[in-house]
Amino acid sequence: MKHRTRQHKRPSTTPVKLGPEESFHIDRLTHDARGIATANGKVTFIAGALPGEEVSARVFKSNRRYDEAKLISIQQASDNRVIPACQHFDKCGGCCFMHLAYPEQLNAKQTWLSGQLRKLEFKGDIGLLRDEPLAYRRRARLAVKTQKDTSVKMGFRGKASADIVAIENCIVLTQPLQAIIPNLSVLLAQTEKPNVIGHIELLDDDLGCSVLLRLTGVLTDIDRSLWTDAALSHGWHLYLQESTQDKVKCEGDALRQYRLHDMTIHYHPQDFIQVNRPMNDKMVAQALQWLTLSEQDKVLDLFCGAGNFSLPMAKMAAKVVGVEVQPQMVINGELNASINGLENLTFIGADLTQTVRHDELKRGFTKALLDPPRAGAFEFLPSLLKLKIDTILYVSCDAATLARDAEFLVAHGYQVKRVSMMEMFPQTAHVETMMLLQKKH
Questions:
Q1: Could you read off the pLDDT of 305-338 as tens digits, one per residue?
Q2: How many angstroms separate the most distant Cα atoms in the chain?
Q3: Residue 173 and residue 26: Cα distance in Å, rounded?
């Protein structure tokens, strides 16, 4: 369920030409909470509109098969429409579902997920794993931009825009991170050369809160002291990533950490971890329950990171081998295995999008867990089939690539036994899924 970094073309800031105001009836929702209206066989997508509503909108983009329109007014509102809890909802691009009652958000996501998996002919119910819908996110990245009048804007990217929406608070962040934001605004206003700060990364874990400044230039000695003193005063850990560094230098005792199933997991502050801690605990617990591991099992953990699944599985199985492409994560995984006394856990470095030849990757595994980035695991699936593994647990952050990969596995002798939607990112369009597949005998 890792999110692979990609280069995206930023939306244009050029004003769009709007068509005349028209009336639309909204039939259903897209996966990213845009209303869908159909007239004369042509679909129109309208952000902010909900099923059952009568709205006025103006088309700003027209294609042969569909149009996109800007919502102007709501003539008849849905019973499921609610006032967004966040004051920045209308402009901020972070959350798209906050105007829809939360139970209906879950229904909309489950309906969309069912549609994505329809070709698998899974006859069971799609389960639901969820926790609190707000104050769950333990890390965030804030953009920083110095304006022409030398004032500083800090916040998130806007809806379908490259502009920064200045925020006073973000209610999906954990409470400790919410408390930091006003202090950051004050510090940026006091910074002599804020233009050298590209963005700010916030993190909340068992060591407390940390603030990482991604620098695009040289921070003056006065500014460095300002931020260092503020961090000491507020109890933050401050990281300064210089413009010459791909990552801030952090290893050994300086690593961050969090507890999971009575174990401590160490990681670099810029490495991937699940941002929703309560949901991560529930997700790992469900994975262990579904896999029903025993002392006879040998488990292959693909795209394993620093051991979020590997470590708990190693306490139950005979042997676990974790495979990860990032060298530093392999090192941190080995450290985690050593610190937690798991001699039956091995980490190896390998790019699973390429042919992998390693002594550890031979037949003998009974079960496998896959937790790939959005692109999925399709390139490795032929190699996985050769291992003749009986049970595969697939954890996905992209239902489309999950469906593609699962269809391949089903075509080669596996059947889908269980599926669960995991509400890892409430208020957003993200849908996480856990699927259990077993080889037909």
A1: 999 999 999 999 999 999 999 999 999 999 999 9
A2: 70
A3: 32
92-146, pLDDT tens digit by residue?
999 999 999 999 999 999 999 999 999 998 889 999 999 999 999 999 999 999 8
Tens of pLDDT, residue by residue over 191-232, are 999 999 999 999 999 999 999 999 999 999 999 999 999 999
CA–CA dist 2, 27 (Å, integer): 33
Cα–Cα distance, 43 to 242 (Å, whole number): 48
pTM over 0.85: yes
At 112, phi and psi to the nearest 5? -65, -40
- Interatomic CA distance for residues 119 and 142, integer angstroms: 40
Q: Identify the helix (H) or strand (E) that includes residue 403.
A: helix 399-411
> Closest by alpha carbon to 263, among 318, 320, 306?
306
Strands (E), 77-151: 126-129, 139-146
Parallel, antiparallel, or unpaired: how do β-strands 208-215 and 237-241 relate?
A: parallel
Running DSSP on this structure, what letter comes out for residue 261?
T
Active site residues: 397
CB 99 within 8 A of CB 81: yes
Angle at 438 between CA 112 and CA 298, to 5 degrees: 120
DSSP type of residue 81: B
